[in-house]
TrEMBL record:
SMART domains: RING (SM00184). This is RING finger protein 150. Residues 1-35 form the signal peptide. The keyword DNA repair does not apply. Keywords: Membrane, Metal-binding, Signal, Transmembrane, Transmembrane helix, Zinc, Zinc-finger. It comes from Pogonophryne albipinna. InterPro entries: PA_dom_sf (IPR046450), PA_domain (IPR003137), Znf_RING (IPR001841), Znf_RING/FYVE/PHD (IPR013083). Its main location: membrane. The keyword Phosphoprotein does not apply.
Amino acid sequence: MAPVSLVAACRSLALSTWLLSFCFVHLLCLDFTVAEREEWYTAFVNITYVDPATSELRTEKTECGRYGEHSPKKEARGVVVHPGAPQDRQACDPNTRFLVPGPAAWVALIARGNCTYKDQIRHAAAQNASAVVIFNVGSINANETITMPHPGTGDLLAIMIPEPKGREVAALLERNVTVTMTITIGTRNLQKYVSRTSVVFVSISFIVLMIISLAWLVFYYIQRFRYANARDRNQRRLGDAAKKAISKLQVRTIRKGDQETEGDFDNCAVCIEGYKPNDVVRILPCRHLFHKSCVDPWLLDHRTCPMCKMNILKALGIALNADCLEDLPLDYDLTGGGDGGALALEVVVLGGSSDGTLSEEGDSSVLLDPGPMASSSVASLVFTVETGLSDEEGSGEQNQLREKS
C-alpha cells in the first residue's frame, strides 16, 4: 500500500501548493489594485459675462473641470485673467505678467505648455492668484482632462478644463470682456489602474502555476500508468497461478450409486443443481466438490472455495510475490465434512511449495493430502506440524496421528 500512500501524499502536496499559490497571487493582485487606485474630483465651472453683441448678462455652468492631484478640494471665485503677452499664454516664464484688475480676487487662465504644471501654477501664485485654470491644449480627445500632478504648490486651487472651454473663455478675454468664474466641487470618482508591475507579476505567477499544474499532472499520470501496469501484471500472475492450481485439483466422474447422487446430498453450490451420474466434478483441498464446468470459472476469477472461501493457491502451496498476495486474506478456515465428524484448521500461510506443503516463517508446515474420495468413506486429512523437532520425532507424531484417524 506504500505506492498508493505516496501518490495520495504527492496529490495532496500539489493541490495544497496550487491553492496556496493561487491565494497568494490573488492577495497580491488585490494589493496591487488598491495601490494603483486613483481618487479624483470633478469641478463645476460657472462663468458669468455680459454678451457684447446683445448686452445681456449670460451665465454658463458646466461640470467640465477636474481638480489637480495636489490641489485642495475647495471653492474659488474671481475675475478671469490671462497673461498679458501672447507668447506668455502658457506662463512657463517666471517673468510672466498677468493683467491683474486691482486688489480683487482673480483666477489665472493658462494654456497647457511645455513646462510642468508645478511651474505654471507657481508663476501664477507668485502674483497672488486665487485659483489657476489650465485648459488642455493639444489633447487627442477635445473634452479630455487629467488629474494634474503639481506637488509643492501649497493650498492654491488648481483645475484643468477641456481645450474648447478654455479657448471660449480666452476669446472673450481677447475681446476685453470681463468674465467672472466660480469653481465649486463636483463629483468624487474612484478609478483603478493596472500597473505594468502588477501585470508582469500576475503573468509570471500564472506561468508558474501552470508549470506546477502540468508537472503534477504528468507525475500523476505517469504514476497511474505504472501502477495500472503493475496491477495488470499481478492479475496475470494470479490468473496463471489459478490455472496452475486448477490443473492440480482432483477431478472425478460421478458413478451410479455414489453418495453424491442421493437426494439428501448437498447440491452444487454454484449452479444449485444436484449431481447426476456421469457428471464431472472438481474436488477442492477443503473436500468440497462442485461441477467442473461450474467451479472452474469461479476459481479462475476468485481462487477461493465458493463455500468456505479457502484460498486454493495457499492450500496447494503455490507461492506468489508480496504484490500478488497483498489483496488476499491471510487467515482462512479449513473445514472438512463427512459421516464421521468434522475437522477445522486455521492457518496463516506465507509461502509454500508445489508438493502440497504450506510453509510458515515460524518453521511450521501443513501437508494437505487430497487422496481419492471413496463413496462410502470420510475424506481424510493428514497433516504434520513441525515445531523444531527432529525428523524422527516428527515422523513418530505423524504415525500417531494416522493411527488415531
